[in-house]
Amino acid sequence: MTAIPQSGTYINFFEVKRGFMSWLVTADHKRIALLYFYAIMGFFIVAFGLGLVMRLELIAPGATILDPQTYNEVFTLHGVIMIFLFIIPGIPAIFGNFALPMLIGAPDVAFPKLNLISWYLYVLGGLLALSTLLFGDGPADTGWTFYAPYSVKTGTNVTVAVLAAFVLGFSSILTGLNFIVTMHQMRAPGMTWFKMPLFPWALYATAWIQVLATPIIGITLLMIVAERTLGLGLFDPALGGDPVLYQHLFWIYSHPAVYIMALPAMGIVSETIPVFVKKSIFGYKVIVYSSLAIAFIGYFVWGHHMFTSGMSGPARVIFSVLTFLVAIPSAIKVFNWVATLYKGAIDIKVPLLYALAFIFQFAIGGLTGLVVGALATDIHVHDTYFVVGHFHYVMFGGTGFAFFGALHFYYPKIWGRMYNLKWANIAFVIFFIGFNLVYFPMLVLGMMGMPRRYYDYLPEFTLPNLISTIGSWVLAIGLVIMLVNLINGRKGPKASTNPWQSVTLDWTHTQSPPTLYNFDETPQVERGPYDYRNYEQYLKEHNKN
Amino acid sequence: MSDTQNTHVTGYRFSILIWVDLLILTLLTIEVAQFDFQSLTVIVALVIATIKSYLVGTHFMHLKFENKFLKAVVIGVGVLFLAVLIVLFSDYLFY
Ligand code: HEM
Ligand SMILES: [Cu+2]
Predict the structure, then answer these.
(1) pLDDT in tens, B6-28
(2) What is the mean pLDDT of residues A379-390?
(3) Residue A17: inside a domain, yes or no?
(4) Number of domains present in the structure of chain B
(5) Can you give the residue range of the structural domain that contains A279?
(6) Which residues contact A300 (CB under 8 A, 6 or more apart)?
(7) Under an 8 A CB cutoff, do A248 and B88 touch?
(8) Hey, which residues 62-81 in chain B have their CB within 8 Å of chain A?
(9) Which domain, by its residues, includes B44?
């Protein structure tokens, strides 16, 4: 390898190694994070568009722009892309890759090339998913859950869609493995486990789920392929199989996957709040333990997706009780964040706004989760728009908002420039209003009894649907303003190394953008991660330039 | 691999012995499949499979020579797997 000058940042180190190819073969964690960023944003925008299309179809009763079959394919593709290509990899693959090594004082992740392979697997999986549009009978129409027996019988491209998810699973497992080893082996001297910032902790808990749960969906999806090609009868009662077994296997992964989505987002929130409150996070260790508890208990609650699928009575009770248990550590975190705000010097900047929106919307998502987690009420709202509202509040209102919060937070570090703060605020407000306009009516519709996954509805559901569709336009406008502002920010004023005055290593000991191996010399860690006592003095001594 | 310090060579003979054990256990799995153990069927199959994975893990995957932490990780994962199965069978056993 040719020597690389320490002076260039990781971005303009392409003054040494220039051009497209230097990115495609990079092993630098920050460049890989950016590769992920562009790919993931691309898929997000596609799936967002599909969401708008669905909302447009539902603007009024009767067929408007889609026929029923196309509608089924659209919500399936929307779900598959949003879940497997946006919300699961989003925060870990972009912001985890970018910030984790810097947060723990390391020059890179443990296996940089494996990291690049993960990205290629991600792209391959994404292209496979999109390829289902191009041939045969069109994209899968099963819903993102691929439930047997329909997924075995339908003529649409389920096999390829399922293989896409399989490949994406590998990408996820490898990233998780990489992060676990990185945190075990590469923490800077002095950074004990309990001096590690909370975003790495959240990624650590997440990584274990990725490594331990993802193989299960891998095998399960291969079983679908085997059913379709060989007709083994694993899920076919006529041949001694069991369709409910498919649901068990699917959710044994896919519920823990909910925490793959949620934990990193919680990590981002824990990382942001102290910075804008200039106060140590309330109950650091409790947040750590609650992350680990969520990861652990989260394994044993999958059955709450199957209360109406004909499970045994005792199983239903057990899963319901466990589901209520897992709510506790999440609630503890919410309490800790709010307690951190209490009597802090709150400086309301965009990243904090997104974090606050996370708390608000995630709480709605969590509380509506209790409604579907209780046996009796679930029977009323199961498979209605209540569920659609609930999981969008968790995934989009929670994780999605944390994602955009993280983007605004790390932006100056990633690109070394600052976006326009005023426009960022405006975009946030529109985005926030739009979001709630889209999804709150869905909760109401669900209570009224409107079923999900239909292209049409009865006339009495018209008004909330209309509000929701108009909301989707507001949401889209918010997104466009946000993205345009961020794109323009690339030409904005130069950002200092530490514009938010954070005391974690990623901000204090690196340049913006960081150099190739992040640190000129390996940092020595003496302070806790959120020690804001005399932080001005500390920053004066330690900030670069 | 350049560092030879950590490689433990146990010899082909030993590996082949383990492999023969695995084959015998596989045959056993097939043989016991003819008997109906009722609700114990799964347990019988899993006990044999557990012995096999123990052999593979300790010898072929070198766990025998690894440190305590890695052993703890593997055992922990085993316990997790068991717990998932127990919860799963809360559906099938009471049906
Ligand atoms: C982070 C962002 C998002 C995620 C993770 C997400 C995820 C999902 C998932 C998993 C489904 C279920 C698909 C299925 O039933 O198989 C779904 C359905 C739906 N999504 Fe999204 N989505 C997101 C954003 C959006 C946006 C921006 C819109 C509209 C503007 C939207 C509108 C819908 C609608 C209307 C349905 C219901 C389809 C039906 O049941 O008939 N989603 N979404
Ligand atoms: Cu769940």
Answers:
(1) 555 667 888 899 999 999 999 99
(2) 96
(3) no
(4) 1
(5) 26-542
(6) A319, A322, B83, B84, B87
(7) yes
(8) 77, 80
(9) 12-93
